[in-house]
Amino acid sequence: MAEKFKNTNNISFDVVTSKAERFEKGVAIRKVVPLSAHQQLNLAENREDPVEILIKTSIGRIENLLPIRYSRMMESPFAFYRGAAAIMAADLAQTPNTGIHLQLCGDCHLMNFGGFATPERQLVFDINDFDETFPGPWEWDLKRLAASFVIAGRWRKFSNKNCKEFAWNVADSYKRHMLDYSKLSALQIWYADIDLAELIELGGDKDFKEFDQKRIKKALEYTAHEKEFAKMTYFDGARARIKDDPPLIFHPTGDLEKQVVKEGEIIHNRYLESLSEEKQVLLSRYKLHDIVIKVVGVGSVGTLCGISLLMSATGEPIFLQFKEARKSVLEGNVKTQGKYSHQGERIVMGQKLMQSASDMFLGWTDDSKNKFFYIRQLRDAKVKPVLEVMKPKNMAEYAKACGWALARAHARSGDPSLISGYIGDTNEFANAISEFSVLYADQNESDYNKMLEAIKHGKLPIAAEI
């Protein structure tokens, strides 16, 4: 009799004696949830109004930044999708799933992947946004990622056939690499990463390969803190200050200024306590000089995010980015109980669980008003996808890379043998995911149009960015 085992994500499963047995257990799940079931998008008749969900997710955000949020989201259905993770989370809760839970990214779309430097200064390709990370059904991340390729492909005016193939490539790559990870030990999976330079070498487009190789070279040569310091700061006496660039970078005023002045040092010191001792020693050589508010990402606009500037006694800078950590949009849509009451800790621990390597200064903190934050370096040799220059062939290759990275991340907290057994070696699962992705792209466009109507009738505020 196999015993029950509960892992750190509160997920129970049978401990069996071999990978083959776990694989066969995955195969058996198909009888309960057929692979073809994943093409379904049967939304409830009483589905919540997407505009109302957006309004709910704006509660508690900085009021005068909300027009920027909606202005960004109205740019295209793809921009809307990036800011509408809460809408899709509610929809995914209505779709079939196998009951296999693991740590999810939670906002798994194609712009939340890219290259970045590990603490050992190696450039890897991985997921890079975990604001919504939470345990849940593995299918949810995959469906959101695949759908994002259809939506982005339509935005680029690619053919319907191309767009559907992008989604198919995501699921097929996930399948193939999850099978590879199912043959490794847990420790081997933990050590696994995706070398960005090697990944680019696999590409078939010579011109695009050269374009990416130049970006890698530039990223490796980039000494972020020194260059940012020269570009972003000035001295006010002995104190280094960050330049305002409103409405996207600015010093807080009014009540927010009082809060930052009063609690800035407290928040910083609590952050230091979340770091390991050697990182505390390193940052003890730096003093906090300035804090500004910075508008970031589509989904995070209006949350309290910003930059803090630290200076050493000899004048070397470090820029840290802090982001407000709110409840995951997945919470309330899954039955899984969250492990962390501190939302900053939830994000940091989820990121460390899913990423092959995380920022050396990644930590969490809070203020006296129960606002949670997480902190990391502002920039560190990041290489972001440039969709505007991608051709269909490049987009297909990028879809495969994202599917690979997601499989690696899921294999760390999930059971790759169980998932691989379920998916199998046919095209049926990828076919179903690509069908779902097209259906959800249609739904996303309908929701986008509802947002435009709400803006037209003054229900959502907008303002032009400077």
UniProtKB/TrEMBL annotation:
UniProt xrefs under InterPro entries: DUF2252
Designated name of the protein: DUF2252 domain-containing protein
Source species of the chain: Flavobacterium humidisoli
